[in-house]
Design a protein that fits this description.
single chain; 235 residues; alpha/beta; Uracil-DNA Glycosylase, subunit E; six-stranded mixed beta sheet
């Protein structure tokens, strides 16, 4: 399958990336020192590639790997609280084979979904620099070009929202009129087809403070289904 092969090539290039010395040093240091709760585990400690179905209709873009989450497990949104929210809802929607992802080799499979991020290395304080984001954008651009069946692009947080718009410009896609503004649940049709859909990021800060509630999170995925014309989830 051509799309699957291209995504594997992109994943290989991501894992081998050394463009941002600060981020590579930080991720390797975290992997070496570890958190006490994971002292017996082998950390991934490298850039984290995207993950999912090459025939995806839903593309999910997050911010960056967590230092003790994806930087530990080697899979996007795996090993921390944000992943509990994401994979739990994907399973409820019938889009993931399990409600929890623990590690890149745990056998979890996605159906109709591809998950990636604006940055591929864990940044200190969850804040990559603009230069680091620029270095990483090529991978998102290539994934977007490869995933030809996507109908909804779900952008988790303002950083992912802005990264998606910049990636579209690098792909020389038409400007979205009127220019969309970030807001939870905001959506816009795209000139190339399909829709943009924004959401607050399911970070622990957002979910523990009530900025993002379970009801709000569930409605985002229900809206994604509606925008793609896939009908409501059946539970």
């Amino acid at each position: 399958m051509r799309t699957g092969k291209e995504l594997r090539i992109i994943a290989r290039d991501v894992v081998a990336c050394e463009r941002c010395p600060r981020l590579r040093a930080y991720g390797a240091d975290v992997a070496r020192t570890k958190r006490r709760a994971y002292r017996g585990e082998e950390y991934w400690g490298r850039p984290v590639p995207g993950f999912g179905d090459p025939e995806a209709w839903l593309l999910i873009i997050g911010l960056a790997p967590g230092a003790h989450g994806s930087n530990r497990t080697g899979r996007m949104f795996t090993g921390d609280r944000s992943g509990v929210w994401l994979y739990g809802e994907l399973h409820r929607q019938g889009l993931a084979s399990a409600a929890l992802s623990a590690h890149r080799d745990d056998g979890l499979a996605l159906r109709g979904v591809y998950i990636t991020a604006a940055a591929r290395c864990a940044p200190p304080d969850n804040k990559p620099t603009l230069e680091e984001m620029d270095h990483c954008r090529e991978y998102l651009v290539r994934e977007m070009a490869a995933l030809g069946r996507v109908r909804v692009r779900l952008l988790l947080g303002r950083v992912a929202f802005d990264a998606f718009l910049k990636a579209r410009r690098e792909l020389e896609l038409p400007e979205i009129e009127p220019r969309p503004r970030f807001g939870h649940g905001a959506s816009a049709p795209l000139p190339e087809g399909g829709h943009l859909l924004a959401s607050y990021h399911p970070s622990q800060q957002n979910t523990s403070t009530g900025t993002l509630t379970e009801a709000m999170w569930r409605r985002v995925f229900d809206k994604a289904r509606a925008l793609a014309g896939r009908g409501p989830v059946r539970v």
